């Protein structure tokens, strides 16, 4: 009877060096894509949140103006002043109390009277610096966010993105906003462009002469 040699089990076989390198390379690539995507997503969320903070500041000034929030000027407390927001390109902006200032924008747009009664309208609907006006709050962006562009237009005219400063002012009893630039221009719609640190993305905060404030929309 013919006999056969016993079958020997195959010795266990491990990964080769090349296989391990390939697997590690795949893991590194996938991890890099996931981390990069998550970082971009987080940056987008923070940019949107920063834009809403700017919009909230405009609403805050509108609320102060409508309530005629009191403000001490020397030894006198005035309860009938306007409030506004001054924007410039850079990493900060400020909310101001519109206490006084020369009649620049015109009586039809921003009438002025003197005294300290509820009927009096103080200020000139723009920021004239300290001590003429007062700084209520000064906001500085963190993480490298900036105001990259200020754009505005009047009526059906073209959008102008070369203005260097923008004042958004409110006075009781109007919910309307007075929008003006550094050259005393008056606008019907304005945009504040908030830019991310790497400069690849922006969010637009729009405010209209009617007092409407929105994020992500542009002037029509």
Please characterize this protein's 3D structure.
By secondary structure, the protein is an alpha+beta fold. The chain has 1 helix and 12 strands; from the N terminus they run H-E-E-E-E-E-E-E-E-E-E-E-E. A 6-stranded antiparallel β-sheet has the order 5-4-3-7-8-9, covered by helices on one side. A 4-stranded antiparallel β-sheet has the order 6-10-11-12, covered by helices on one side. Strand 1 and strand 2 form a beta hairpin. The longest helix has 51 residues, at 17-67. The radius of gyration is 30 Å and the shape is elongated.
**Number of β-strand runs:** 12
Unreliable residue runs: none
Distance between the termini: 100 Å
Radius of gyration from CA coordinates: 30 Å
Average pLDDT? 85
Helix/strand order: HEEEEEEEEEEEE
Biggest β-sheet description:
6 strands, antiparallel
Fraction in beta strands: 25-35%
**Relative helix content:** 10-25%
Q: Indicate the structural class.
A: alpha+beta
How would you write the strand order of the largest sheet? 5-4-3-7-8-9
Distinct helical segment count = 1
**What overall form do the CA principal axes indicate?**
elongated
Count of the domains: 1
Helix and strand arrangement:
Blueprint: H1 17-67, E1 71-73, E2 76-78, E3 82-88, E4 92-98, E5 134-140, E6 146-153, E7 165-170, E8 178-181, E9 186-187, E10 189-195, E11 202-208, E12 213-215
Antiparallel strand pairs: 1-2, 3-4, 3-7, 4-5, 6-10, 7-8, 8-9, 10-11, 11-12
Key phrases:
220 residues; 12 strands; 29% strand; alpha+beta; single chain; six-stranded antiparallel β-sheet
């Amino acid at each position: 009877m013919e006999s056969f040699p016993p079958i020997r089990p195959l010795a266990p076989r491990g990964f080769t060096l090349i296989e391990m390198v390939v697997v590690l390379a795949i893991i590194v690539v996938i991890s890099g894509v996931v981390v990069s995507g998550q970082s971009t997503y987080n940056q987008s969320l923070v940019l949107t949140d920063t834009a809403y903070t700017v919009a909230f500041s405009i609403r805050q000034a509108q609320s102060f103006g409508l309530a005629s929030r009191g403000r001490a000027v020397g030894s006198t407390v005035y309860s009938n002043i306007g409030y506004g927001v001054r924007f410039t390109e850079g990493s900060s902006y400020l909310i101001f109390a519109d206490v006084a200032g020369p009649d620049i924008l015109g009586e039809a747009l921003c009438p002025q009277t003197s005294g300290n009664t509820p009927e009096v309208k103080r200020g000139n609907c723009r920021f004239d610096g300290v001590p003429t006006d007062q700084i209520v709050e000064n906001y500085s962006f963190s993480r490298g966010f900036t105001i990259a562009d200020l754009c505005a237009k009047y009526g059906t005219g073209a959008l102008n993105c070369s203005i260097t400063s923008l004042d958004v002012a409110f006075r009781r009893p109007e919910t309307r906003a007075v929008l003006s630039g550094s050259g005393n221009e008056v606008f019907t719609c304005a945009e504040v462009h908030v830019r991310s640190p790497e400069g690849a993305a922006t969010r637009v905060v729009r405010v209209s002469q009617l007092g409407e404030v929105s994020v992500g929309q542009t002037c029509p």
